[in-house]
């Protein structure tokens, strides 16, 4: 990806020249799900328009001496016991990258202690936040969410004052053209969240069209725009595991189109998406109760369109650009690297509480009813993370 052919004479001179120019150098040590550039984009575009843009990314370990890079990014899922840097400067930043939940990918054990300086993950308490999606203010482009301190007042002040307006005519025309109820695009049929079992029960009470490897329908290029947005009222944004802050493109895709997502996960969704922009399956006692509510919404055009009114105030984008901008900024501002004494504790300990009871109990899937029952069994001091919403 970012290899400067014949640029400077040798690795030592290259490193010295970058330092003199004030450019922070970043090495991608391994790949991200097989992608050697971590899905950051093309060479010239990575840091364009970032507040701090004097950074360069490389994936050639021989371009400079490994210990001369300002930062090295390690994708935790693809780390090897036998492949870590042999030399390291105390001023270097080793950054742990992961976009998968600990329920699906265990943190690397051997190098977790006093090895990493920064975390770059989907978790809201990461040093560098790399979420699948972000929400911006339509008028000024400022970042709004996800955040533990999210402020939706631009939207709430308007709607709470009783001044809610109809959605745009384009959105309204899309709504009027919908004729089907629930869609789901899925390829992992054995997710640990029990989502497939939930959908099987839901399908007994409402029509659910399942696309992909786990269903009988096929959907190809521009699936969301041409099929799901056009035909369906709802899309199932069901995550593959229940872990804190784990929200993926399964929510971003419907929010970027004119279809209402039904979420099923362990995040505090109010920190990720605008109020009244989604339906939370865990607000209902059972799939049957959820089905009844979705039918009601599909039959009440005014109520349904209220779930799309937020689009006048916010827009949804992918989160990678903001993440790389934050990475460059931190490298310029942070002077002394800190150390994570035990990354496993930070990343995984008590971060998937609902997932634990699905694994160890008799429940096949999660509902408001099953979670409350589990909490009662654990005693008065126990609280499943998902209810902090």
TrEMBL record:
GO MF: fucosyltransferase activity
Primary location class: Golgi
Span of domain Fucosyltransferase N-terminal: 24-132
Domain of life: Eukaryota
InterPro entries linked: Glyco_tran_10_C (IPR055270), Glyco_tran_10_N (IPR031481), Glyco_trans_10 (IPR001503), GT10-like_C_sf (IPR038577)
Membrane topology, as annotated: Single-pass type II membrane protein
Keyword hit for Glycoprotein: yes
Pathway: Protein modification; protein glycosylation
Gene3D superfamilies: Glycosyl transferase family 10, C-terminal domain
GO cellular component: Golgi cisterna membrane
Start and end residues of each Fucosyltransferase C-terminal domain: 176-346
Keywords carried by this UniProt record: Glycoprotein, Glycosyltransferase, Golgi apparatus, Membrane, Signal-anchor, Transferase, Transmembrane, Transmembrane helix
Enzyme Commission code: 2.4.1.-
Family: Belongs to the glycosyltransferase 10 family.
Listed name of the protein: Fucosyltransferase
Species the sequence originates in: Trachymyrmex septentrionalis
